[in-house]
Amino acid sequence: MALMKFICDTERCIACHGCVVACKEGNHVPVGINRRRVITINEGQPGERSISISCMHCSDPPCMAVCPAQAIYKRDDGIVLVNKDLCIGCGYCLLACPFGAPQFPKPGPFGARGVMDKCTFCAGGPAPTFSEKERRLYGQNRIAEGKVPLCAGMCATKALLAGDAEVISKIYAERVARRGSGLSPKIY
Amino acid sequence: MRRPLVGLVLVSMVLVWGTSAFSEILRGYGPASPTELFRQLAGVTLGDWPTRGREFIQLVPSFKRYFLAVILGVSGLFLLHFLIFGPKRFSRGEQLVPYYGAVTRLFHWIAALCFTCLFLSGLAVLFAKSLGAGSFVRTLRVLHLVAGFGFFGAIIPLFLIWWRDMLPASYDLSWFLSLGGYLSRKKEPVPAGKFNAGQKLWFWLATVGGVVMFYTGFYLYRFEAPVATLRTYLIIHNVLALILTAFFITHLYMTLFAVKGALKSMITGRKGLEEIKYLHPKFLEEVGP
User: Fold this and answer.
1) Taking CA atoms, what residue in B is nearest to A46?
2) CA distance A119 to chain B (A)
3) Alpha-carbon Rg of chain A, whole angstroms?
4) B124: which DSSP letter?
5) Domain segments of chain B: what residues?
């Protein structure tokens, strides 16, 4: 079985935020909530690099370990999803997540936290595939359509790779080998 | 024949050097190594997770076990106590002494109601899986919030009313050493003023601890602090809740089962003279018979 992963190539990412916008538009993510974000270090200085981060669909997800409602589950293909019918919005998952992936839209006027929302790898959710409920709660189900997630599909420099871990790590390894580390001593 | 060959070698060397230098320029000048780069990126994205995250994700699921152990353990202990020593009975007949004012009782009952809600809804969050999770527990979380504000509002007047009576006294240690005389069937006066040492401990935990619970809980509700701080707050909130749970069960047992008539005194505000003589003798010395 394939294991779905993201890889962001920091040598290619130009911080255009196209992935953030594509995800937000394509999945109708609520205002103020981004399932994906771009982080830039050394901005405007030598050594500026950017990385696009969302849920990394961990092999052993910490969020799943702490969830008291057992609302978070892992599919056979490694995609980690949240069941919004079970989620109680306690926020333990955000505290456990190393990447700050879980998001909490605030539906109430008093800022009461709603259920958790996060990157679904564009694989919808536990609701019936392509159903109205799935689209409304979780967004598109592009995996079921045989497409890559919106963010990776949108990425102009192809910095963001999404798919079977073996395939994309091979692509990345080839890229690294081809461009070199930049550190090798000059032999000529 | 030799010269063009040397020239060709020279030209190709310049070309190779030129393209590699050009690609250097395109790559930009940055940190020495990709490792250093990833270290920097990890510092921004992961924060203190690599050092403290593992403990956190091991500790949080085990809170469920701790709460179950405390609730069952403490209740079991008191059940055993009830079976062995039985309740203390005092006659409420001849003379009743005013003990709790009307305002005190009002705020005490507000606090009691709110604390019960907090206790149950807090447990509901931890044991969400067993309760079916979903909107039911989500509603209880809102109740937890409302009750939290209610409890905070009630403990402030209670603190102002009681703090003077709750200051530690010289005889409190001997009360603790004899465990308040609860480990015997005999009725003997115990060293205690208006409140015994156990009640004092419960008071300080519920008020000062209550403020800590309110503060940490408020941030856990708003989520407007760095995640590392929130992790610490969650652990403080849960550990303190564990201690408060143990004391809450003790308080319930004492008033409902161990001392007959204790509940009545918080409803009517008056205690029987015999009960005061045995359980709060120093109170009589202070006020006079």
Assistant:
1) B30
2) 16
3) 18
4) H
5) 61-287
Q: Which residue of A has its CA nearest to B53?
A: A96
- The C-alpha of A99 sits at a distance from chain B's nearest C-alpha, in angstroms, of 6
Single-letter code of the amino acid located at B278: Y
The encoded tokens of residue A5 equal 């992963």
Q: Which helix (H) or strand (E) is B174 found in, with range?
A: helix B172-177
Evaluate whether A76 touches A85 at the Cβ level (below 8 Å).
no
* Tokens standing for residue B72: 């069952």
Helical residues (DSSP H) of chain A, grouped into ranges: 18-27, 62-66, 92-96, 132-138, 150-154, 165-179
Q: What is the CATH number of domain A4-179?
A: 3.30.70.20
Q: B22-34 as b/e, with b when 16 or more CB fall inside 10 Å? A: eeeeeeeebbeeb
Amino acid at the residue B27: R
For residues A118 and A67, is the Cβ–Cβ distance under 8 A?
Answer: no
Q: What CATH class is the domain B61-287?
A: mainly alpha
For B244, the token pair is 């408060």
Q: What is the pLDDT of residues B151-210, one digit of tens each?
A: 999 999 999 999 988 898 888 888 888 888 888 777 788 888 888 899 999 999 999 999
Those of residues 130-189 in B touching chain A at CB distance below 8 A are 133-134, 137-138, 141-142, 145
The residues that bridge with A41 in the sheet, in sequence order, are: A49
CB neighbours of residue A156 within 10 Å: 11
Contact B89, B260 (CB under 8 A): yes
Residue of B57, B138, B221 with shortest CB distance to A88: B138
Instruction: Report the Cα A108 to chain-centroid distance in Å.
Output: 26
Which among B20, B44, B127 has CB closest to A39? B44
Angle, in degrees to the nearest 10, between helices B197-222 and B134-162: 130
| B24/A47 Cβ within 8 A | no
Q: pLDDT tens, A59-104?
A: 999 999 999 999 999 999 999 999 999 999 999 999 999 999 999 9
Is residue A103 helix, strand or coil? strand
ipTM of the complex: 0.87
